[in-house]
UniProtKB/TrEMBL annotation:
<keyword id="KW-0289">Folate biosynthesis</keyword>
<dbReference type="InterPro" id="IPR043133">
    <property type="entry name" value="GTP-CH-I_C/QueF"/>
</dbReference>
<comment type="function">
    <text>Catalyzes the conversion of 7,8-dihydroneopterin to 6-hydroxymethyl-7,8-dihydropterin. Can also catalyze the epimerization of carbon 2' of dihydroneopterin to dihydromonapterin.</text>
</comment>
<comment type="pathway">
    <text>Cofactor biosynthesis; tetrahydrofolate biosynthesis; 2-amino-4-hydroxy-6-hydroxymethyl-7,8-dihydropteridine diphosphate from 7,8-dihydroneopterin triphosphate: step 3/4.</text>
</comment>
<dbReference type="InterPro" id="IPR006156">
    <property type="entry name" value="Dihydroneopterin_aldolase"/>
</dbReference>
<keyword id="KW-0456">Lyase</keyword>
<dbReference type="Pfam" id="PF02152">
    <property type="entry name" value="FolB"/>
</dbReference>
<feature type="domain" description="Dihydroneopterin aldolase/epimerase">
    <location>
        <begin position="5"/>
        <end position="118"/>
    </location>
</feature>
<comment type="similarity">
    <text>Belongs to the DHNA family.</text>
</comment>
<protein>
    <recommendedName>
        <fullName>7,8-dihydroneopterin aldolase</fullName>
        <ecNumber>4.1.2.25</ecNumber>
    </recommendedName>
</protein>
<dbReference type="GO" id="GO:0004150">
    <property type="term" value="F:dihydroneopterin aldolase activity"/>
</dbReference>
<dbReference type="InterPro" id="IPR006157">
    <property type="entry name" value="FolB_dom"/>
</dbReference>
Length: 122
């Protein structure tokens, strides 16, 4: 299966991080989501009910990213993947990539982050 739905470059100003400064000042997080979904039925029917509504996925990601601060990006990514895989029965696999665009680390870079892939158990 090669069909995918993606949400790319979602940006949220949030207060996640293990360092106190990250929780006080906050920073921009970039989130990319890729879901493996069989899109053949939606391609034939032209009905949103035969696919995954990416507007709803966006709202789920937004709720988690702007919710209670956590220490680790790994935890955020896991929460997002679990939410998607448990709420959308058409999703077979979810890839979540979260980037801190400007963490408090000396140096020059475009960002640091994590990427996870979780297979749905549905």
């Amino acid at each position: 299966m090669k069909d995918k739905i993606f949400l790319e470059g979602l940006e949220f100003y949030a207060y996640h991080g293990a360092l106190p400064a990250e929780n006080e000042i906050g920073q921009i997080f970039k989130v990319d989501i890729e879901m493996q979904v069989d899109l053949a039925q939606a391609g034939q029917s032209d009905r949103v009910t035969d696919t995954v509504h990416y507007g709803e996925v966006y709202e789920d990601v937004k709720e988690i990213m702007l919710g209670q601060p956590v220490n680790l990006l790994e935890h955020l990514a896991e929460r997002i993947a679990n939410r998607i895989n448990s709420h959308y029965n058409r999703v077979m696999e979810t890839k979540v990539r979260i980037t801190k665009k400007n963490p408090p680390i000396p140096g020059y870079y475009e960002g640091v982050g994590v990427e996870i892939v979780r297979v749905s158990t549905q």
